[in-house]
Amino acid sequence: MAIKKFAFVVKSLPYKTEASRLALTHAIASQTVEIYLEDGENVEPVVAFIGDGVLNCLKNQKSMNTYGVTSNEQHLKNSLLLDLRVLICKEDIDKFGISEDALIMDAEDIGGETRARVVPFSEIMQEMDSASHLLFF
Amino acid sequence: MGKLTLGVFSSLVGSLSMDFAVKLSEAAVKKGHKVDFWVSGNGTMLSKKAQRAFKDYSALEKKLQELFATGNFQATACEACAEARGYRKEDTMEGWQRHSMDWYLASCFSADKVLHIGGD
Lengths: 137, 120
What we know:
The complex is a heterodimer.
Chain A: E1 3-10, H1 19-28, E2 42-49, H2 63-67, H3 72-81, E3 85-89, H4 90-96, E4 117-119, H5 121-130, E5 133-136
Parallel strand pairs in A: 1-2, 1-5, 2-3, 3-4
Chain B: E1 3-8, H1 17-30, E2 34-39, H2 61-70, E3 73-78, H3 79-84, E4 97-99, H4 102-109, E5 113-117
Parallel strand pairs in B: 1-2, 1-5, 2-3, 3-4
Helix pairs in contact in B: 1-2
């Protein structure tokens, strides 16, 4: 049985480029990767938002109203609905003066049970250290 | 010999990231390694056939055809990313596959090394 951890590290601003959206869609794709793998093999994704990337986690994104495209908020909630582990860097939200109340911490409104966690950067480093592959977006 | 998986998210034109990734693939294949090459987002532009080779812009179609011919290089484009940009299956360069993003993760799973080259 081989499980490999992939760390999806999001450091890009939301909407300025497609990068953070692609991070979430690739992480969500881990839910169907088994079709290509042998029995007992799987990918364990962890998504970590650092630096400017923490701005992807702000609540009340309006991209559907403004541009007619899905928001990163919706993708983040889908990630939580699928029980992906989502980490948000504490030092970086402090740097921006963002409180946890302003962040998407759960997907309860769509039936999700898993919560995002605000953690110190040292914990994100530990996740990166223990990952088989790092994917920076 | 090992397997290298490259994920490239930059467009063909606009930076030299794609040129670097293809050059790296050439070097790896020449050393006897296998290369899986994934393009997502603007990177899917690389899979578009009938690119015209101007000297002012990157032109990689010929190099890709040479890589495909080695049998040790496979390239796959994110199908949704390509379709969103109007690149249909019939517009895709010979040799390319199109799959969803889970293909990339599976390729990373079995790779000895992964190099993920972000977009713009």
